[in-house]
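Sample pair:
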Amino acid sequence: MALLISVAPVGEDWAIQSDALPEDLVFRSGGRAETAARDLARRRAADGQAAEVRIFVRGGALAGVLTYPAMAGGPAA
Protein backbone atom coordinates (compact mmCIF):
# COMPACT_ATOMS: atom_id res chain seq x y z
CA MET A 1 0.00 0.00 0.00
CA ALA A 2 1.27 3.47 -0.87
CA LEU A 3 2.26 5.97 1.78
CA LEU A 4 -0.22 8.87 1.67
CA ILE A 5 1.17 12.39 1.91
CA SER A 6 -1.24 15.35 1.92
CA VAL A 7 -0.52 19.02 1.30
CA ALA A 8 -3.34 21.26 2.49
CA PRO A 9 -3.93 24.80 3.71
CA VAL A 10 -4.06 25.36 7.46
CA GLY A 11 -5.09 28.91 8.27
CA GLU A 12 -2.68 31.17 6.40
CA ASP A 13 -0.05 28.42 6.15
CA TRP A 14 0.30 25.06 4.38
CA ALA A 15 0.85 21.70 6.05
CA ILE A 16 2.19 18.31 5.05
CA GLN A 17 0.44 15.43 6.80
CA SER A 18 1.58 11.82 6.64
CA ASP A 19 1.93 8.74 8.81
CA ALA A 20 5.64 8.91 7.95
CA LEU A 21 5.99 12.10 9.99
CA PRO A 22 5.88 12.40 13.79
CA GLU A 23 3.95 15.68 13.38
CA ASP A 24 2.69 17.88 10.57
CA LEU A 25 5.25 20.02 8.76
CA VAL A 26 4.03 23.62 8.32
CA PHE A 27 5.18 26.05 5.63
CA ARG A 28 4.32 29.67 4.86
CA SER A 29 4.16 28.87 1.12
CA GLY A 30 2.11 26.22 -0.66
CA GLY A 31 4.89 25.82 -3.21
CA ARG A 32 7.44 25.05 -0.53
CA ALA A 33 5.09 22.57 1.11
CA GLU A 34 4.50 20.83 -2.22
CA THR A 35 8.23 20.64 -2.94
CA ALA A 36 8.91 19.14 0.50
CA ALA A 37 6.09 16.59 0.02
CA ARG A 38 7.46 15.57 -3.37
CA ASP A 39 10.94 15.17 -1.87
CA LEU A 40 9.55 12.97 0.91
CA ALA A 41 7.67 10.83 -1.64
CA ARG A 42 10.77 10.46 -3.84
CA ARG A 43 12.87 9.35 -0.85
CA ARG A 44 10.26 6.78 0.16
CA ALA A 45 10.02 5.47 -3.41
CA ALA A 46 13.82 5.18 -3.59
CA ASP A 47 13.68 3.15 -0.35
CA GLY A 48 11.18 0.75 -1.94
CA GLN A 49 7.86 2.11 -0.66
CA ALA A 50 5.30 3.54 -3.08
CA ALA A 51 4.00 6.99 -2.17
CA GLU A 52 1.14 9.23 -3.22
CA VAL A 53 1.03 13.00 -2.77
CA ARG A 54 -2.43 14.59 -2.64
CA ILE A 55 -2.54 18.36 -3.02
CA PHE A 56 -5.55 20.33 -1.81
CA VAL A 57 -6.39 23.98 -2.49
CA ARG A 58 -8.01 26.49 -0.16
CA GLY A 59 -11.63 25.48 0.16
CA GLY A 60 -10.72 21.80 0.38
CA ALA A 61 -10.90 20.72 -3.27
CA LEU A 62 -8.39 18.15 -4.46
CA ALA A 63 -6.08 19.87 -6.95
CA GLY A 64 -3.92 16.92 -7.94
CA VAL A 65 -2.47 13.54 -7.14
CA LEU A 66 1.13 12.56 -7.78
CA THR A 67 2.16 8.90 -7.60
CA TYR A 68 5.64 7.60 -6.88
CA PRO A 69 6.02 3.86 -7.52
CA ALA A 70 8.45 1.91 -5.36
CA MET A 71 11.80 1.64 -7.06
CA ALA A 72 13.39 -1.77 -7.52
CA GLY A 73 16.27 -2.48 -5.19
CA GLY A 74 14.80 -0.73 -2.13
CA PRO A 75 14.36 -2.61 1.15
CA ALA A 76 10.70 -3.46 0.34
CA ALA A 77 11.54 -4.81 -3.12
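DSSP finds one helix and five strands in the chain.
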